[in-house]
Specification:
By secondary structure, the chain is an alpha/beta fold. Helices cover 33% and strands 22% of the residues. It is globular. The protein binds zinc ion.
Length: 468
C-alpha cells in the first residue's frame, strides 16, 4: 500500500484553510497534521513519496457536474471522447465528471445508459458518474427512474427547450418531478421556453438575420426567466427539489433567489462562459461568433455582476462547465448562413478551475468559495460527498497541488481538449495546476501527463445531500 505525504502546502477546502501535511494511504486521505509536527515528520520518514507543496495550495480535485462527451447534437458529435475529455479535465485540476447519458425518444432509459457506459468504459483518466437525460416521460420510463436511482444514477435532466428533440411539456415535467419527489431523484432543468424561441428563430431567419449573434437575441433572457419560474412552481406543486442548469440571465437568477427566499429546495448552476464571456463574443465578425454559440446563450456583460453576486450569496451554488465542444472547422461551420444550425456548446472542462482561481485573484469570490462552488457543493448536490469534493480523513485522495503564482495564457495551441479553438484564447490567468492525484495515483505530475485511459472508475452516486 503506497504512502504519499504532501508536505508544506496550504490545504484549502470549502470549510478551512490550514497549513498542514497530508498523508495519503491506499488511495485515500488517511490524516492531516500540522506542518512539520512530530506525526507529520514520522509520515515523511516512512513515505514512498513526498510531494513538496511549499508555497502551493493543496485542494480537492474539481468536480465538474455537467459535461457532454461525444454528445450527438445537430447531426454531429461533441468532439471530445471520454478519453480526450477526461485527460483534459485532469490537466485542468478536475478529477470527477458527471456526464449526461441520453435517452432517445422511444427507447428505454436503460438503452441510453448502456450506450454511455460503453463509451466511457476503460477510457477515462479520472472518475466519472452519469446523470440521465429524460427525453420521453411515460409509464415505463417513470418506473425505470426508480431503478436508476437505486443504481446510483440519481439525477434526471429535462428540457423545456429543443421541441422535437429533448423537449418535455409541462405535464410530463410534472410527472417526472412527482416521481423524483418519491424516489429521491433530483430533477435538473434546462429552463428556456423552446416553443416561443422556435417562433422567434423562424421569424429571424425569414427576415435574413442569420448571423451567430441572433442566436443570443432569439433566446431571450425573459424566456429563460419565464421557464425558470415555471419549473420552480411545477417542482413546488410536485414537492420535489429542482436544480436549474446553466443559468445565464439575471432575470432567471431573480426567480431562483425568490424561490430560495421562500425556503424551497431550488438550486442553480452557472458556467464560466456566462461569467467571463458575453454577447460581444457572439457578435464577433467573420462567423467567429459561432465559437460562442451555446444554450442558454451568452448574455450582455451587465448580467455578469449579478451572477458573481449570486455565487457569493449562495443564490447560485455550483459552477460547472457544460463542456460540449465542437470544432470551428467542419462543425460550427454547419451553421454558416443559418445560426440555428450551429451546434450548441463550448469547450471548457480544462479551464474551469483556473478561471475560477482568476476570479479569486480578481476579488469576485474567496478562496474557500472557489473550492465550495467547484468541488464541495457539486459533490454534495449529486451524492458524492465526502468521498469527493474535500480533503478529509477517509476521502478519496483526489488532490490537486495548485501553484497560485504561476502565470499562463490560455490557448488552443497548448490546451488538451480535442477542439480547434479556445473560447478564452489569449486570456492571462494567474494560477496553474502542477500535480493531480486521482485516488492517490498521479495523473498529472509536475506538469507532465502520467495518467492512463481506464484508471478512471465509474462512480455510482447517492441522492442529493444538499437539501434544506
Ligand atoms: Zn448541457
Amino acid at each position: 500500500m503506497s504512502r504519499i505525504v504532501i508536505r508544506g502546502g496550504l490545504v484549502v477546502t470549502a470549510a478551512e484553510e490550514v497549513h498542514a501535511d497530508v498523508l495519503v494511504e491506499g488511495g485515500r486521505v488517511a490524516a492531516l497534521a500540522s506542518h512539520d509536527s512530530d506525526p507529520a515528520r514520522g509520515w515523511t520518514a516512512s513515505a514512498d513519496r513526498v510531494i513538496d507543496a511549499i508555497g502551493k495550495y493543496v485542494i480537492p480535485g474539481g468536480v465538474d457536474a455537467h459535461t457532454h462527451m461525444e454528445l450527438p447534437f445537430g447531426g454531429t458529435f461533441a468532439s471530445d471522447t471520454f478519453e480526450t475529455g477526461t485527460r483534459a479535465a485532469a490537466w485542468g485540476g478536475t478529477t470527477t465528471i458527471v456526464d449526461f447519458a441520453v435517452q432517445s425518444v422511444g427507447e428505454p432509459l436503460r438503452a441510453g445508459l448502456d450506450t454511455w457506459h460503453a463509451k466511457a468504459d476503460a477510457q477515462c483518466a479520472i472518475d466519472y458518474g452519469f446523470h440521465m437525460i429524460l427525453s420521453d416521460v411515460n409509464e415505463d420510463t417513470l418506473k425505470e427512474m426508480d431503478i436508476l436511482v437505486e443504481e446510483g444514477v440519481t439525477s434526471f435532466k429535462l428540457f423545456m427547450a429543443y421541441p422535437g428533440v429533448f423537449y418535455s411539456d409541462d405535464g410530463r415535467i410534472l410527472r417526472a418531478m412527482q416521481r423524483g419527489a418519491d424516489n429521491g431523484g433530483l430533477i435538473m432543468m434546462h429552463a428556456e421556453n423552446g416553443i416561443a424561441i422556435d417562433v422567434l428563430v423562424e421569424q429571424a431567419l425569414a427576415a435574413g438575420r442569420t448571423d451567430p449573434r441572433y442566436h443570443g437575441e432569439v433566446r431571450h433572457a425573459l424566456l429563460e426567466a419565464e421557464a425558470t419560474h415555471r419549473a420552480i412552481r411545477l417542482a413546488q406543486v410536485a414537492g420535489s427539489p429542482l436544480y436549474v442548469v446553466h443559468v445565464s440571465a439575471q432575470q432567471a437568477v431573480g426567480q431562483i433567489t425568490l424561490a430560495r427566499d421562500e425556503g424551497l429546495n431550488v438550486f442553480g448552476e452557472t458556467c464560466p462562459q456566462y461569467l467571463f464571456l458575453s454577447t460581444d463574443n457572439l457578435a464577433e465578425p467573420d462567423f467567429e461568433g459561432a465559437k460562442y454559440v451555446c444554450s442558454t446563450p451568452l448574455r450582455p456583460k451587465e448580467h455578469q455582476a449579478v451572477l458573481w453576486r449570486a455565487l457569493r450569496t449562495n443564490d447560485l451554488q455550483v459552477v460547472s462547465t457544460d463542456h460540449c465542444p465542437f470544432c470551428f472547422v467542419g462543425q460550427k461551420e454547419l451553421g454558416r448562413g443559418d445560426f440555428s444550425k450551429i451546434p450548441n456548446g463550448l469547450p471548457g472542462v480544462e479551464n474551469r478551475m483556473d478561471l475560477l482561481h482568476q476570479a479569486v485573484v480578481d476579488g469576485h469570490i474567496s478562496r474557500r468559495r472557489w473550492i465550495e462552488i467547484a468541488c464541495a457543493t457539486p459533490a454534495r448536490m449529486f451524492g458524492l460527498y465526502p468521498r469527493k469534493g474535500t480533503i478529509a480523513p477517509g476521502a478519496d485522495a483526489d488532490i490537486v497541488i495548485y501553484d497560485p503564482d504561476a502565470e499562463q495564457v490560455v490557448s488552443a495551441a497548448t490546451h488538451h481538449m480535442n477542439v480547434d479553438y479556445s473560447a478564452y484564447e489569449g486570456k492571462r490567468i494567474t494560477g496553474r495546476v502542477e500535480t493531480v492525484l486521482s485516488r492517490g495515483e498521479p495523473v498529472i505530475d509536475g506538469r507532465e501527463y502520467v495518467g492512463r485511459a481506464g484508471h478512471g472508475q465509474y462512480t455510482p452516486r447517492g441522492t442529493c445531500q444538499y437539501l434544506v
